[in-house]
Amino acid sequence: MKIQANTIRPGNIIEHNGKQWGVLKIQLIQPGKGGAFIQVEMRDIRTGTKTNERWRTQDTVEKLTAEERECTYLFGDADSLTFMDGETFEQFTITRDVVGEPAAFLQEGMAVTVDLVEGSPVSVNLPATVVMEIVEADPVVKGQTAASSYKPGKLENGLRVMIPPFVETGTRIVVNTSDCTYVERAKD
Predict the structure, then answer these.
(1) What is the distance of C-alpha 113 from the center of its chain?
(2) What is the DSSP letter of 97?
(3) How far is CA 40 from the centre of its chain?
């Protein structure tokens, strides 16, 4: 199915130069002079090679349809992640690169959606938010309330996130998996 380049989103699978590519990141660039264009960082599904491509916003690209499967994350190591198909209960392994940066939010038993093209897993979609515990939080500096101030905190998975001053070590918070930002304090 042909789509306009400006409607490409991360996670889409497109066909370009006879190869299938998984879209990792997009950036819409509007120069001061001339037409806008979209810069797309993508990875070859078969070889894992990454590349950047630019299209004008009115150009069209071929979007491939992917089959979505409900799966459960089981466990992972430094290079690979193991999932179980929710219907057939078959286990399969995906390299950590396929998931990308959100792999840090995977938790054992988490329900995810895996996109398959021609039977091969090409992307993993995590829930929009996860609940994580703060293991390290900087103390609040008195008098620093002139503006909405956030302080750095460290999550149980090792990632850093900016948190409000009232959040302390041991607090469970809701984190956005797409951009690693604080959403709210978790309801117990």
Answers:
(1) 12
(2) H
(3) 15
Strands 172-176 and 91-95: unpaired
Q: What pLDDT was estimated at residue 146?
A: 55
pLDDT tens profile 101-147: 888 899 899 999 988 887 778 778 888 899 999 999 887 766 665 56
Overall pTM surpassing 0.85 (yes/no): no
Both structure tokens of 60: 């069209």
Terminal Cα distance for the chain, rounded = 45
Nearest CA to 69 out of 107, 117, 108, 16 is that of 117
DSSP strands (E only) in the chain: 2-4, 13-16, 19-29, 37-44, 50-56, 60-64, 67-76, 80-85, 91-95, 111-117, 120-125, 129-137, 151-155, 160-163, 172-176, 181-185
Greatest alpha-carbon span in the chain: 60
Torsion, Cα 76 118 122 20, to 10 degrees, reads 150
CB 123 within 8 A of CB 102: no
Can you give the pLDDT at residue 54?
92
